[in-house]
Amino acid sequence: MAFITDNPVGFALAIFVWVPVAIWIQGTLNLAIMAEVDFLFFVMSSFMMVAVGYFTATAPTPGIAWLFFSIAWGQVVLAHPIRTTVRKIELSKIDYDQADKLMDQIGRTLSLVSVVRLGEILRQYGLPGHAVAILDRGLQGKPKQMYASEYQTLASWKRQPLAHQDMRPLACDRCNELNPPGEIFCRRCNNKFLLAFIRATVLQGRTEFKLLIAWTVLVAVSVLVLLSRRFLPTWAFIPLALILIAVGVVVVMKALMRGRR
After folding, report:
1. In the chain, where does DSSP find H-type helix?
2. What is the mean pLDDT of residues 40-50?
3. Which residues contact 18 (CB under 8 A, 6 or more apart)?
4. Percent over 90 (pLDDT), the chain
């Protein structure tokens, strides 16, 4: 009771710090179950959050308590962009696979349903001019009575203003041939060059995810080293600190290498 009356702010921080700890553990456990993060990352980051909670509850001064309390909530705030980035990567993978299959279908037989869906994906990834040109080209010579829905879709796309850069030729990622809007396959090597722009979004999401993981591991190693320094003698602390740093490096390297295969 004396601690509550003498340090009510510290007591409140010691209670409420476990809310972000629980949120973080639950969120990273879900990511580990979905194989989006390594189980080692889940274990290390969970121990880190528990240690942050402990340091908050046992801090000798209010300033130190506020520091660790802020770290705990900061990690929870960081969890949202991690989940958002994971969803972004997964959706981009789905779009990439679907666009690849649609191009195969269009290559075998021109299906306007496939052309419209491919155009929708291209518009989503910042290529509205190419989407309009592909659908416009596919509708050439087609009667409006039979393809009224496709013509309406094309008209709605055309009503949205296009910037000059939306109609720029795109370089093939295989042979560097410049392909004007309307081309689905490279004019020189027949490569599905438009897939490279969807792939770029997947790679960008992976880069963001790797940076978030690296930052979390850095915080985890720092907190765990502080925790071991507090309770262990020097002869035991030094090797343990080196082990923690080595494990952190391994986790970061695995995160950076993820998706390169």
Report:
1. 2-6, 8-16, 18-33, 39-58, 62-108, 112-124, 128-138, 148-159, 195-231, 234-257
2. 80
3. 53
4. 18
